UniProtKB/TrEMBL annotation:
Involved in the transposition of the insertion sequence. It holds the Pfam family rve_2. Residues 128-291 form the Integrase catalytic domain. SUPFAM superfamilies: Ribonuclease H-like. InterPro entries: HTH-like_dom, Integrase_cat-core, RNaseH-like_sf, RNaseH_sf, Transpos_IS3, Transposase_IS3/IS150/IS904. This is Integrase catalytic domain-containing protein. PROSITE patterns: INTEGRASE.
């Protein structure tokens, strides 16, 4: 009520607003005297706390690409040491004028190969792994720019949800795009022996050079059913988040423009973004916890020598 009077007092007098509201509604409305007394008392402790939290919520929302909804915002605030309930978070987000961003439909970029795809399905829609570098999923999506389409390839670790490899190109005709992402993932991995690489039936992933690189590092190729998006759902979920959280927010000039922004987004995704599937933790936290309890072979050898 006070906020309503504050908004319209310059157009109508306080007395007129209070009299009109009291005439058309029964009880519960301020008199002009009550309004002035309330203004003289100043903000209550609750409103002062709300004002501070609203400012903090706006900053958290802005720093996370403006995509956090109530659940992630609630967990983010609690991680910051703020004792707040979920319903209170929702109320303050409404006051701050911020909300989450739902995912749109993922584009289809798969081109059928000219040769038979003999890779088995070793995942069967069970996107779970006992640790990092046990199961990777890969896929390609596209970005519309003023100079044409740009294509982005991602390789994602199933256990930690970390994007372990990515690459951009202004052409999808070459095999180099997904291969660059794969090479980056291999370089960053601690171990690849026994790892499963799962993708769709795109011709880029069926290529001889791509599968030779997998075999060279002891990685087994896997693929889902033709035409069934659920068989590579995790990779498509990464694509959807990428488009929703970054790409759809602005118009892009060219491949360089997209590449710089993608680098920043991948770093945020791996190091700062809270993932619901990880219990509202980050991929970096999940991997750090895993390697703390399961040292790699190299670390164990160093400890043994010491």
């Amino acid at each position: 009520m006070i906020r309503f009077i504050d908004e319209y007092r310059n157009r109508f007098s306080v007395e007129f607003i209070c009299q009109t509201l009291n005439t058309h509604r029964e009880g519960g409305f301020l008199t002009s005297r009550g309004y002035r007394q309330s203004k003289a008392r100043g903000l209550s402790a609750r409103r002062l706390r709300d004002a501070v939290l609203i400012e903090h919520i706006s900053a958290v929302h802005r720093d996370n690409y403006g995509v956090y909804g109530v659940r992630k915002m609630w967990h983010a605030l609690r991680r910051d040491g703020i004792d707040i309930g979920r319903e209170q978070t929702a109320r303050l987000m409404r006051l701050a004028g911020v909300s989450g961003k739902g995912k749109g439909r993922s584009p289809i970029t798969t081109r059928k190969p000219n040769v038979p795809d003999l890779r088995p399905d070793l995942v069967n829609r069970e996107f779970k792994a006992p640790g990092p570098n046990r199961l990777w999923v890969a896929d390609i999506t596209y970005v519309r720019t003023r100079k044409g389409f740009v294509y982005t390839a991602f390789v994602t670790d199933v256990c930690s949800r970390r994007i372990v490899g990515w690459a951009l190109s202004d052409s999808m005709r070459t095999e180099a795009l997904p291969l660059q992402a794969l090479n980056q993932a291999i370089v960053c991995a601690k171990e690849t022996a026994g790892l499963i690489h799962h993708s769709d039936h795109g011709s880029q992933y069926v290529s001889i050079v791509y599968n030779e690189r997998l075999a060279e590092h002891g990685i087994t190729a896997s693929t889902g059913t033709v035409g069934d998006s659920y068989d590579n759902a995790l990779a498509e979920n990464v694509n959807g988040s990428y488009k929703n959280e970054l790409i759809h927010r602005r118009t892009w000039a060219d491949v360089v423009d997209v590449e710089i922004a993608t680098f920043e987004w991948v770093n945020w995704w791996n190091e700062s973004r809270l993932h619901q599937s990880l219990g509202y933790r980050t991929p970096a936290e999940v991997e750090a916890e895993f390697w703390e309890h399961h040292p790699s072979r190299e670390i164990m050898e160093i400890k043994a020598q010491a």
